[in-house]
Amino acid sequence: MDMRARRSVLLLAAGLVAAGPGLAQDNPDIVAAGKKVYFSRCLACHEPPSTVGLTDDEIAQNEAMLPGGEAVPTRGPTLTHLIGRTAGTLPGYNFSEAMKASGVVWTAEALRVFLLKPSVAMPGNKMPFNGVKRAGEMDALIPYLLDAAK
Ligand code: HEC
C-alpha cells in the first residue's frame, strides 16, 4: 500500500471513531446519565462545563462546592470548551509540569484513557482522583463531556 492510500485509510478510521461517540452524545438519555456521573464524581473539583439545562437543584449543588474556587490547590481547572483543547494550556490555572508537558489533546479517546486511571495515564499529574472504574459510568460520562464541554 503506498503512503497516500495508507493515509486515507487512517483518515477513514479516524472518522469512524469520531462517529461512534457522536451517536451517544446526541442521545439525551445517555447525556443525562453522564451528567449524573459528573455530578457525583467530578463536581467536587470542577464546575459543570456548561450550565445549559441544569436544574435549580444542580445549580445549588455546584454553588455549595465553589467556596475558594480555583485558589484551592486540589480544585481543578474549568472544563468548559475542554474538547479539542491541549492539556495544561488553560490560561490562569496552575497546572502540574506533567500536565503541561503531556501534549495531550482532549478528545473522547484521550479522556477515556486519562479518566480510567489518571495517575497511570499521566504520571506526576496532580489530579487527586482514582479513576472512573465502572464501564457504564465511563460510557455515559464521555458523551456528556462531548456534549457539554465542546
Ligand atoms: C479531588 C479533585 C478532582 C476531582 C474529583 C476531579 N478532578 Fe480533574 N483535575 C483536578 C486537578 C487538581 C487538575 C489539574 C491537574 C494537573 O495540573 O496535573 C485536574 C485536571 C483535569 C483535566 C485536565 C484539564 C486541562 O485543561 O488540561 C481534566 C480533563 C479533568 N481534570 C477531568 C476530570 C473529570 C471528568 C473528573 C470526574 C470524573 C475529574 N476531573 C475529577 C482535580 C480533580
Q: What can you tell me about this protein's structure?
A:
The protein has 150 residues and is an all-alpha fold. It has a single domain, classed as Cytochrome Bc1 Complex, Chain D, domain 2. The protein contains 7 helices and no strands. It binds heme C (HEC). Heme C binds at residues 41-42, 44-46, 74, 76-77, 79, 82, 85, 87-88, 90, 95-96, 98-99, 106, 115, 125-129, 132.
CATH architectural grouping: Orthogonal Bundle
Q: What would you call the shape? A: globular
Q: How far is it from the N-terminal to the C-terminal residue, by CA?
A: 36 Å
Order of helices and strands: HHHHHHH
As an assembly, this protein is single chain
Largest sheet: none
Portion of residues within helices: 40-55%
Strand composition percent: under 5%
| Total discrete domains | 1
The total of helices stands at: 7
> Measured on Cα atoms, how large is the radius of gyration?
17 Å
Total number of strands? 0
Q: Which topology does CATH recognise?
A: Cytochrome Bc1 Complex, Chain D, domain 2
**Quick one: CATH superfamily?**
Cytochrome c-like domain
Q: Give the class from helix and strand content and strand pairing.
A: mainly alpha
Bound molecules: heme C
Mean pLDDT: 86
So what's the CATH class?
A: Mainly Alpha
Spans where pLDDT lies below 50 across 5 or more residues: 10-19
